[in-house]
Structure formats: C-alpha cells, structure tokens
Write a structure and sequence with these properties.
Helix content is about 35%, strand content about 10%. It is an alpha/beta fold and about 220 residues long. The protein has a five-stranded parallel β-sheet with strand order 3-2-1-4-5, with helices on both faces. α1 packs across α6.
C-alpha cells in the first residue's frame, strides 16, 4: 500500500505520517511552500521527517500564488499574527483562504499518478482553529470530488483520523509511535525560537503540559 502524506513539518502531520507507516503504508511525502512566515523552518523539518521515515519519495511543491491572494497573516507580513485569545470569536487571521482544497487537489493528482491508495492529511476540527476547510463536512465533500474526478473511481481514500481529536490526543498517540517532536515546528511567526503566544504555540505547549512532558522546542518565554 502507498499513501501520500501531506507533511508540513508540524506536530499533526508528522504524527499522522508515523501512523501511516505503522499501518503498513509506504510513504510518499508531499510538502508545500507558499511563502508562509516559517517556510524555511517548515521545509527543513519536513525534509528531516521524510528522511527519518525512509519515505519512498519526497516532493516539494511551490504554491506561492497563495501569497498573492493575501488575506492571511501567514502569507501577508503586513498583517500581524494574532496571539491566542480564548475569548476570540470567528476564524483567526492565520486562516489561508481555501488552502486545504488547493493542497488536496495537488495531493490527489500525485496519488493518482503513483497509484496510491490513500491521502493522509492531519486536519483537526477541535481546539482553536475553526478553519472551515478542516471540518468533516469539507473532507466528505472532497472525497466525493476525488471519487468523481479520478480514473480510479473511488480507490483513493482521504484518511483524516485526527479530525475529531484534541492536540493532547494527537500527542499521546505520537509518543506511543516514538515521533521525534524535536524535529517538528508549530510556531506561526518565528523560525529560530518559538514565540509562545500564537495559537499554534499555545495548543502545542498545553498538550505537552497536560501530559506532564517537556516540549523539546525552545520558547521565548524560557529565555
């Protein structure tokens, strides 16, 4: 069995890739660059994880056109990344408009060209994000698009086991799989020392704290 694993270099996608390997899939690692603030760090982490997984292939795709659209603090540096706020309502400004549809369309082309059986994507509808393209309804709709628009006629399956899990749940699973979290990156706005205040940092730190484990990444608050 072969699986395209969307590998961002972050906690969730790395844990999911290790889970795919545990389930017996050969890994086709797919990484995207779209001029996000931490592009270099994410790319470095993804390459390291693909090597540690002995991925059958590792492919990087340039999606810089997403930065031309803007409207996200990840791709438009004129928009500051929002700090985590438990009282915040609505979608955070780190949302990149319809990003996952773009990623999954390319992943589907890649999977079909390699006769892969599955696409693993670490979307998560719990915790803070509220991103509309992480919801189960979106995944179900995209699965129908894959079934309808590929010659495989339903062979390629979207695998999203984290969609209803918390960050703590994902970390707990990853620890059992011996995921090397020291080689992952979550911060939205820094590439050397994690900011510790963005939403991604907050939920990562909270997950490690809840399990009584020290996060191997450096944070500004620890300096």
């Amino acid at each position: 069995m072969k699986a395209v694993c969307l590998l961002s270099g972050g906690m969730d996608s790395t844990t999911l890739a290790y889970l795919a390997r545990e389930r017996g899939y050969k890994i086709l690692a797919l990484h995207f660059n779209y001029r996000q603030r931490t592009e270099e760090k994410e790319r470095s982490c993804a390459r390291t994880i693909a090597r540690l997984l002995n991925a059958e292939e590792y492919l990087e795709v340039d999606l810089t056109y997403l930065s031309l659209f803007g409207k996200s603090s990840l791709t438009d540096h004129a928009i500051p990344v929002e700090p985590y706020d438990p009282e915040r309502e609505g979608i955070p400004n780190t949302y990149v408009p319809f990003r996952n549809a773009n990623l999954l369309a390319i992943a589907t082309s890649y999977a079909e060209s390699r006769d892969a059986d599955a696409i693993f994507i670490g979307v998560q509808a719990q915790d803070y994000s509220g991103y509309p393209d992480c919801r189960p309804a979106f995944i179900e709709a995209f699965q129908r698009a894959i079934d309808t628009g590929t010659r495989s006629g339903g062979r390629i399956r979207l695998v999203t086991p984290f969609v209803n899990l918390s960050k703590r749940d994902i970390l707990s699973l990853g620890l059992s799989l011996h995921v090397p979290y020291e080689h992952t990156w979550s911060c939205y706005q820094a590439e050397d020392v994690a900011c510790g205040v963005c939403g991604a940092c907050h939920f990562r730190q909270a997950a490690f704290f809840a399990l009584g484990i020290k996060d191997p990444l450096p944070y500004r608050s620890e300096e």
